[in-house]
């Protein structure tokens, strides 16, 4: 009797199992010329920001800039998966990968929206436009709607109504590899607007405050419309450098963090360049016996340049597959 009951329960469960399996059966889509990771994510799962997940979970897509016509994609309700090459028996463009790379790039379509300022490195020779020299009632710390005084006057020139961004000069950043002095980290504090202007000084009101503002803070001209769209663009040069510091100062860097890199306009870096974070793989040499010269690099993530200086730039980490650290290498092309 007990055995019959178990068999009956198993039979009753079978239709549910078959139905669930059928529901999870993916649709197969063949990538065509003009498709992008960005566009496919938006089309099939209504989330254009899903594409980095496809990149990180699919070993075929080593470089997210390139996908190839003929590749097959499994489409689930909540995810997209590339069909491994060995399972895709006849991929039309596999015989000419070099030509396929020229057909497809996601860089032209992907954009990132930035709000406010991410700070920057004040390189050698940097001079602020002015400074906060005091506050009403001799306050040491001020915030929104507080009155402060600046060394900006009509001889600078400056006028009533002019707006300025406020920064704090922070730690000196040394290159993690060469120990070269790269500049001081500048932390955004807020904004102010001049109200009364004398020849060499002025009164101002703080209009925005991200952090505490004190006398000695630096002033730089305010840029209107801090909401910016950063479009990806291919780098004109083969860029290679290092992450030299993070905005937060945290030891471990991840997606969404702001970092500073040792590539600037003098090296050919431009706003919108996507760079990849890579790390050399090391193994115990006692197992090598001289047969292996070099291992493939480990791809850790990607970042996009959002502001450039002469020898350094500010960048946004847009993907991190593993923990990223100060001193990790960045390249414009993966091998």
- Helical fraction equals 10-25%
Instruction: Give the amount of beta strand, in percent.
Output: 25-35%
- Outline the biggest β-sheet: 6 strands, antiparallel, barrel
- Terminal CA distance reads 65 Å
Instruction: Give the C-alpha Rg.
Output: 27 Å
Taking pLDDT < 50 over at least 5 consecutive residues as the criterion, the unreliable ranges are 1-23, 88-109
Number of helical regions: 4
Q: How many independent structural domains?
A: 3
How is the largest sheet built, in terms of strand order? 6-7-10-9-8-11
CATH architecture of the largest domain: Beta Barrel
The name of the CATH topology of the largest domain is Thrombin, subunit H
CATH class of the largest domain: Mainly Beta
What does this structure look like?
- This protein has three domains: 20-109, Membrane-bound Lytic Murein Transglycosylase D, Chain A (Roll); 120-221, FlgT, C-terminal domain (Thrombin, subunit H, Beta Barrel), CATH 2.40.10; 232-331, Thrombin, subunit H.
- 13% of the residues lie in helices and 35% in strands.
- It has 335 residues and is mainly β.
- The chain has helices at residues 2-23, 37-45, 51-57, 97-103; strands at 27-30, 72-75, 80-82, 111-114, 120-122, 130-135, 147-150, 163-174, 181-197, 202-209, 218-221, 228-231, 240-246, 252-253, 258-261, 274-279, 298-308, 313-320, 324-325, 329-331.
- A hairpin with a 6-residue loop joins β8 (163-174) and β9 (181-197).
- It starts with a helix and ends with a strand.
- A six-stranded antiparallel beta barrel has the order 6-7-10-9-8-11. Strands 13-15-18-17-16-20 form a six-stranded antiparallel β-barrel.
- The chain has four helices and 20 strands.
- α2 crosses α3.
């Amino acid at each position: 009797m007990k055995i019959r009951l178990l068999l009956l329960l198993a039979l009753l469960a079978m239709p549910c199992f078959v139905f669930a399996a059928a529901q999870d059966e993916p649709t197969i889509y063949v990538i065509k010329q003009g498709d992008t990771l960005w566009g496919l994510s938006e089309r099939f799962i209504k989330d254009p920001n899903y594409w980095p997940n496809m990149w990180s979970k699919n070993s075929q897509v080593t470089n997210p800039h390139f996908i190839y016509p003929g590749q097959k994609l499994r489409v689930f309700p909540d995810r997209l998966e590339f069909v491994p090459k060995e399972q895709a028996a006849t991929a039309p463009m596999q015989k000419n990968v070099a030509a396929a790379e020229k057909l497809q790039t996601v860089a032209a379509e992907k954009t990132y929206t930035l709000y406010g300022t991410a700070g920057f490195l004040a390189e050698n020779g940097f001079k602020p436009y002015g400074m906060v020299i005091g506050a009403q009632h001799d306050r040491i710390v001020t915030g929104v709607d507080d009155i402060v005084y600046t060394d900006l006057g009509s001889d600078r020139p400056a006028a009533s109504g002019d707006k300025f961004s406020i920064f704090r000069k922070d730690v000196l950043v040394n290159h993690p590899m060469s120990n070269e002095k790269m500049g001081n980290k500048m932390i955004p504090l807020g904004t102010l607007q001049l109200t009364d202007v004398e020849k060499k000084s002025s009164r101002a009101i703080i209009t925005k405050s991200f952090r505490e503002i004190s006398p000695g803070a630096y002033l730089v001209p305010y840029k209107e419309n801090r909401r910016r769209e950063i479009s990806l663009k291919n780098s004109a040069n083969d860029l290679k450098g290092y992450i030299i510091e993070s905005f937060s100062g945290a030891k471990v860097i991840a997606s969404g963090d702001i970092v500073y890199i040792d590539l600037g306009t003098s090296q050919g870096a431009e706003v919108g360049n996507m760079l990849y974070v890579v790390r050399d793989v090391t193994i115990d040499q006692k197992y090598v016996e001289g047969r292996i010269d070099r291992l493939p690099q480990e791809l850790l993530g990607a970042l996009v340049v959002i502001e450039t200086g002469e020898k350094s730039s500010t960048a946004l980490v847009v993907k991190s597959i593993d923990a990223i650290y100060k001193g990790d290498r960045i390249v414009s092309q993966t091998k």
